[in-house]
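SAMPLE LOG
Freezer: B-3
Tube label: C17
Construct: single chain, 449 aa
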Amino acid sequence: MKKKILLSVIALLLIGGLAYYLNTRPTPAEIRFSGAYRFDDGTLMVITPREGAILRFKKMSGETGALWPTKQADGYEGGDGWAEHEPITNRVHFDRNQQGQISGLTWQRNAMELKATRLPLREEIVTFQSGELTLRGKLVLPEGTGPFAVVVPVHGSEDYSAVDQYSDPYMHAANGLAAFAYDKRGTGGSEGEYTANFDVLSNDTVAAAKYLRTRQEIDGDKIHLAGFSQGGWIAPLAALKDGNIRTVFVGFGVAVPVLGEDRWGYVYAFQQKGFGEKELAEMDSIAAILSDIFDRGQNRWADFEKAVEDAKTKPWYETAKHSDSLFGMILGTDMPLWVSRPYMWWKYGRTELPFIDRLYDPVQTLAKLDTPSLWIFAGKDSSAPTQWSVDELDKLKAAGKPIEYFIYPEAEHGIIRFEQQPDGERKPVRYEEGYFQQEVDWFRRQSGL
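STRUCTURE (predicted):
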């Protein structure tokens, strides 16, 4: 009897676990419609998955939006803005040719109807080796004959599939450049464990470049790297290791150590609340304890716990607690330290191969790198210290390094225009006009096109 009860309990747990998995697993990305589309007036638009069955479109002008599936086969709809479903202003129907392939689309916006043709870009899903791991990539080729210059996007901190969701490869291929996106280790179809370790990830980027040089469609002397956000640390390091990268493009990246970006998280939050140098100095002293714990392997948890108790009496505590920083990450969940401490130590505090090397100094890499680079910054970036990065780049430029940069003064991280909400939140609206064209023009010019 007891055995039957035990077996029944085990069965119920298995059924419950399966139900939970089925209900919580991510919906596969809808990739059937991914590609570059050109309207009759010459406007170029790329479409890729946003999440699951939801799509995102991007125009070269910076206009963007989301599209939701309708009950009609190959039908989609959405509203104006970054991610508005309603009120519906855009109705899209994807057209198919006689072979059943997506050949274009019909776009209805209010009373207007526009036609777009899907560009006949060639795509190939491939695998390549990085050490003992097999990584998945996607090569997108433009029309015409090669060998082509190629752009390799270098990931930010995201954990989703670049192969399935990146839109830049289609934008570049539509402008005469090949593109190669690959899934970061531990994501999508790539083997390995997800990490933010720059040394490890830059080795994967070098492996991607090595693979591209085996392809007859690619000009191995014209491989460009495009690092976005966290990729701004990785791409220059990969270029230095490879030794034959044509150029590096950095979008909303950081030219100071991770410690600097982490400090910016609470500096920015303090600035928004009107706190000054005195309060920042108090927070800096706590951040120094965390750095000793996570970056230098010192057991200063007792010092940190005492510092936290003292900080709870300070007017800035709640601001720091909810800031985009390691301090905010540890305390923002309201979990007791005895709960969060083992996880944080396991993920960030192991010194043999840290999840992320917060002491890595990109300036030392850039000082050795003679590869031309273009850095694009957001002037109102809440996630990255734009001015601190610019200050470092100015020093490198003065030392003769081939560095250029451009700042969109009203942009947020991602080079995104936003509307300030009454509660202080920033509502994304679109990408900055000219940003996508600036990226394409850089690579074309540096490729001699």
